[in-house]
Write a structure and sequence with these properties.
Layout lengths: L5 H36 L5 E14 L5 E14 L7 H4 L14 H29 L1 E4 L7 E3 L3 E5 L10 E4 L1 H5 L6 E5 L2 E2 L3 H9 L3 E2 L5 E9 L2 E7 L2 E4 L7 E4 L3 E2 L5 E4 L4 H5 L6 E5 L2 E2 L3 H11 L4 E7 L3 E7 L2 E4 L5 E5 L5 E7 L16 E7 L14 E6 L4 E3 L3 H8 L4 E8 L5 E12 L5 E4 L2 E3 L3 E4 L3 H18 L15 H10 L4 H19 L7 H13 L6 H47 L10
Antiparallel strand pairs: 1-2, 3-30, 4-14, 5-6, 7-8, 7-10, 9-10, 10-11, 12-13, 15-29, 16-17, 16-18, 18-19, 20-28, 21-22, 21-27, 22-23, 23-24, 24-25, 24-26, 26-27
Helix pairs in contact: 1-3, 1-10, 1-11, 3-9, 3-11, 3-12, 9-11
C-alpha cells in the first residue's frame, strides 16, 4: 500500500462527515416533516429513527418518544401506529397502540405528504443559497454552444485508446453534420439551456429508427439559420464490471484555449508561447475547444502552424509553431486470441510493482494491463497487475522477460498457447488461450507542441425554481424510461446508498457542489416517496384514499398483506441495486488501477531536448 498521510486521513474524515451531515440530514428532514405533522395532528408517536433494524444508540425523550439511530443506514422512519401497521420494517409496537383511536383521512394524508414537503422546502432553501453564491461548473457547460465534435468516439476500453486498442465508432454528431460553433436549441423537441441538459437529453432519449438504432433529433442555430440533424447516439460503456452503457452524441462544449505552461526545448517554448496566452485561431480557423486544437495539430502533422494569440492587455500576436510528431506511450505486448470473436490481451513491462511493494515485480517481468474488448471469462484469472512469466513455446516452456521474448514465444501464427501466471499474494497457475498469436500494433502518434493547457471553471447563477423544477422533471423522465423499451436506462443503473455516499465523498472539496447534490437527493426523495407504492408515503396515501371512498375493499388484514408483500419486493429491489452498485464500485476501482498502470508503465514524458 501507498503511505497514508495525515492529510489523507483528514480528507477522508471530512468526506465522511459530509455524508453523515447532508445525506443523513436529508433523511432527518424527511422524517422531521412526518414527526411535526403527526405531533400537530395529535397522533401517537412511538419512535423517531434514522436507519432501520436494531437500535444502535439513542434516548427516550420526555414526550415518551424513542429517538434512535438504527443499524441499517438505508433511510429512516417515524413509527405512527395509527397511520399504518409497519411492524415488518419498524419493529414491534407497544400493546397500547392497539387501543388507540382511529385517525381521520385528513390526518393520514397530511402526515404522509409532509415528509416530501419538508424535503422540497429544504432543497429549495439550498438552491437559493446556490443562487446567491453561484455553482462552480466546467467552462462552457452553462452554454449550449458546441466547441468540438470528434470524428471518432471510443465506446469501450477507453483506457487503451492511446495504444490504438479502444473500440472506436464514427462520432455520431460529426456524422450527422453538427460542427464546432453550432448552438443547440433543442434535443428531441425539448429545449435545452446548458450543455449538461444536452447530454442528459441524449442519455435519457427513447427514440429509435426503423432498424432499432437509437436516434436523437437536434435543432441547432448556425450562422443565423435554424437547422435540424438526426443523430444516432453511440452506446458507450462507462463501467466494465456493471456493464453500464449510456447514449452519447459525441459533443464537447466551447472552452477557451489557454496555455498553462511549456516544456523545456519544446516547439511551444521556441515559438515564444507563454503561460496565460489565449490561442484564438490556428491558420485562420477559430478555436472553440482545447481538444479541437489538439486534433487540428494532430491532423496537420509536423508543418508550421500560425496561431493568433491574445496576451495580457488584449494584445493579439501571430505566432508560428512547428509541432513534433511522436507517440506518448512505450511499446506494449499484444496477444490476439479467440476462435470466433477475437480479443487482445495487453501486457506491459513492469517498471515498478503497483500492487504490493513487498512482493515487487522486477523490470524483467511482464504485467497484464487488460483485454480489449473486456473478457469476463478471464477477468478473475488474468486480472490487472498479474505477472505472466512463462509461455509454452512450440517445443518447450519458455521464460518470457521482455516483449520481444513474448512475441517470439507466442509467434505470429494462430495456435493454442498456454500462459503461466503469478501474483504478488503467491497465487499462480496457467491457462490456455485458443488460437492465440502475437500481433504488432503501432501506438497512436500525435503532433505536439509541448504545451499544457488550463482548465477553467465558471460560476452558474441559476434560479432556484428552475433548478428544482428541472431536477423533478429529470427524475420523472428517468422513472418513465425504466419502463420504456426504447430507452437504454435500466433499473440496475439506479444509485444506492453506496453511490450516494461515494458521490458525496468525491464532491467534498467544494461545499457548493455538496449543496447542489443535496438538492438533487432531497427532490429525488420527495418524488420517490410519493410514488403510489405500499410501504412508501404515496402508498399510505393511496390506501387511505381507497379506504375513504370504498367500503370493505381494503380491510386491515388486506392492508397488512399488501405492506408485507411490497416490503419484500422493495427490499429485493434495493438488494439488486446495491449488488450492481458494488460491481460499479469494483469497476471504478479497476479503471483507476488501469490508469495508474498506464501512467507508471506505459505513458512516457515527451522529451523535446533532442534536435529533430
Amino acid at each position: 500500500m501507498e503511505n497514508f498521510s495525515f492529510g489523507d486521513l483528514l480528507s477522508s474524515a471530512w468526506g465522511i462527515a459530509l455524508v453523515v451531515a447532508f445525506f443523513g440530514g436529508s433523511i432527518f428532514v424527511h422524517e422531521l416533516g412526518h414527526f411535526l405533522a403527526a405531533r400537530r395532528r395529535g397522533l401517537k408517536i412511538e419512535r423517531f429513527s434514522i436507519g432501520f433494524g436494531p437500535r444502535l444508540f439513542g434516548w427516550t425523550g420526555k414526550d415518551g418518544v424513542d429517538y434512535r439511530v438504527s443499524v441499517i443506514p438505508l433511510g429512516g422512519y417515524v413509527a405512527l401506529p395509527q397511520l399504518a401497521d409497519m411492524e415488518g420494517i419498524e419493529g414491534e409496537g407497544s400493546e397500547e397502540a392497539e387501543k388507540l383511536p382511529p385517525i381521520s383521512y385528513a390526518d393520514k394524508m397530511i402526515v404522509s405528504v409532509m415528509g416530501a414537503v419538508f424535503n422540497v422546502i429544504f432543497a429549495f432553501a439550498l438552491a437559493c443559497v446556490l443562487w446567491v453564491t453561484g455553482m462552480p461548473v466546467a467552462e462552457g457547460s452553462a452554454s449550449t454552444v458546441i466547441g468540438y465534435v470528434p470524428e471518432q468516439v471510443v465506446t469501450s476500453s477507453g483506457h487503451l485508446a492511446e495504444l490504438g486498442l479502444g473500440n472506436n465508432v464514427p462520432g455520431p454528431a460529426f456524422k450527422a453534420g453538427l460542427r464546432s460553433g453550432d448552438k443547440v436549441l433543442s434535443v428531441d423537441d425539448t429545449e435545452v439551456s446548458s450543455f449538461n441538459q444536452i447530454a442528459e437529453a441524449v442519455m435519457l432519449g427513447n427514440r429509435k429508427d426503423s432498424q432499432g438504432n437509437p436516434t436523437a433529433t437536434f435543432k441547432v442555430e448556425r450562422d443565423g439559420r435554424i437547422l435540424e440533424a438526426v443523430v444516432q447516439p453511440a452506446r458507450v460503456e462507462v463501467n466494465s464490471q456493471s456493464g453500464d452503457r449510456v447514449r452519447v452524441a459525441g459533443l464537447q462544449p466551447r472552452t477557451s484555449v489557454i496555455i498553462g505552461g511549456t516544456a523545456a526545448g519544446s516547439p511551444a517554448e521556441q515559438a515564444g508561447l507563454k503561460p496565460g496566452d489565449r490561442v484564438l485561431s490556428i491558420d485562420g480557423q477559430p478555436l472553440n475547444n482545447t481538444n479541437e486544437f489538439r486534433e487540428l495539430l494532430r491532423k496537420g502533422g509536423a508543418r508550421p502552424r500560425t496561431l493568433l494569440v491574445e496576451r495580457e492587455g488584449d494584445v493579439s500576436a501571430k505566432v508560428v509553431v512547428t509541432p513534433q510528431v511522436s507517440t506518448t506511450v512505450h511499446p506494449v505486448g499484444i496477444v490476439a486470441y479467440g476462435e470466433t470473436s477475437r480479443r487482445s490481451l495487453i501486457l506491459v513491462p513492469a517498471t515498478r510493482d503497483l500492487l504490493d511493494k513487498d512482493a515487487a515485480a522486477t523490470r524483467d517481468q511482464l504485467m497484464v494491463l487488460g483485454t480489449s474488448p473486456e473478457d469476463p471469462a478471464l477477468a478473475e484469472t488474468l486480472r490487472i497487475g498479474t505477472i505472466v512469466d512463462k509461455v509454452d513455446g512450440r517445443d518447450e516452456i519458455v521464460s518470457v522477460r521482455s516483449l520481444a521474448a513474448l512475441a517470439k514465444a507466442v509467434g505470429p501464427t494462430p495456435r493454442d498457447v498456454t500462459l503461466y501466471w503469478k501474483r504478488a499474494n503467491g497465487d499462480s497457475g496457467n491457462l490456455t488461450l485458443r488460437q492465440a498469436q502475437s500481433v504488432a500494433k503501432q501506438p497512436i502518434q500525435h503532433a505536439q507542441i509541448g504545451a499544457a493547457f488550463v482548465t477553467q471553471t465558471e460560476l452558474a447563477y441559476r434560479n432556484p425554481w428552475e433548478t428544482c423544477v428541472g431536477i423533478v422533471k429529470s427524475t420523472f423522465t428517468t422513472l418513465g424510461r425504466l419502463f420504456d423499451g426504447g430507452s437504454d436506462i435500466q433499473v440496475k443503473q439506479l444509485a444506492s446508498v453506496i453511490s450516494i455516499a461515494k458521490t458525496y465523498y468525491n464532491l467534498s472539496e467544494d461545499i457548493r457542489r455538496v449543496l447542489w447534490f443535496t438538492v438533487l437527493i432531497n427532490l429525488n426523495l420527495a418524488v420517490l416517496n410519493l410514488l403510489p407504492i405500499p410501504v412508501l408515503d404515496g402508498g399510505h396515501m393511496l390506501i387511505a384514499t381507497i379506504q375513504r371512498f370504498t367500503k370493505g375493499v381494503l380491510n386491515s388484514k388486506a392492508v397488512i398483506i399488501l405492506q408485507y408483500t411490497f416490503m419484500a419486493l422493495l427490499l429485493s429491489l434495493m438488494a439488486y441495486i446495491i449488488l450492481h452498485d458494488v460491481r460499479r464500485c469494483s469497476g471504478d476501482s479497476e479503471r483507476q488501477l488501469k490508469q495508474q498502470l498506464l501512467e507508471r508503465h506505459v505513458f512516457k514524458p515527451q522529451d523535446f531536448s533532442a534536435k529533430k
